[in-house]
């Protein structure tokens, strides 16, 4: 396994839309290992999307149990072709991104939703997520559509903040 390098804004790859992964997903076992290792290499990192490591495929990893404050969640999930549905309760809150290391932003996100996708073995996964975990899934799936949190804030002037220190 080896750690992949994380692209930073304004790398144009981060603005690209990713492609659906064609099964069998086991073909991507080696990539999946490196991808998860990369996420785990950053203390407190709770999610990663394949475009952040320069791979324009619809793959994300999420694990909110790694957050510095304890939050409710489903543990580590690596999902292929994830989709969201039944989004509810929109709320503005602060978030950051490994690809935008110097800033955080206030972003409107749904506080509850359903995530569906496939694991490495091709099994369908369906998760009811809420709170911080719901926010992370929205953030990672945005990456698959070429969107950063900077694209989601109402105003770059009032809703984006320079980090005082590097938190990731
Ligand atoms: Zn991000």
Describe what you observe in this structure.
The chain is an alpha+beta fold. It contains two helices and six strands, in the order H-E-E-E-E-E-H-E. Strands 1, 2, 3, 4, 5 and 6 form a six-stranded antiparallel β-sheet that branches. Strand 4 and strand 5 (124-130) form a beta hairpin. The mean pLDDT is 95. The structure holds zinc ion.
Q: Class by helix and strand content?
A: alpha+beta
CATH homologous superfamily name?
Peptide deformylase
Number of separate helices: 2
Uncertain runs are none
Q: What's the structural blueprint in terms of helices and strands?
A:
Blueprint: H1 29-41, E1 47-49, E2 59-62, E3 77-95, E4 103-118, E5 124-130, H2 131-144, E6 160-162
Antiparallel strand pairs: 1-2, 2-3, 3-4, 4-5, 4-6
Bound molecules: zinc ion.
Quick structural summary:
The chain is built from two helices and six strands. The chain has 168 residues and is of the alpha+beta class.
Question: Main attributes?
Answer:
binds zinc ion; globular; 168 residues; 2 helices; alpha+beta; Peptide Deformylase; six-stranded antiparallel sheet
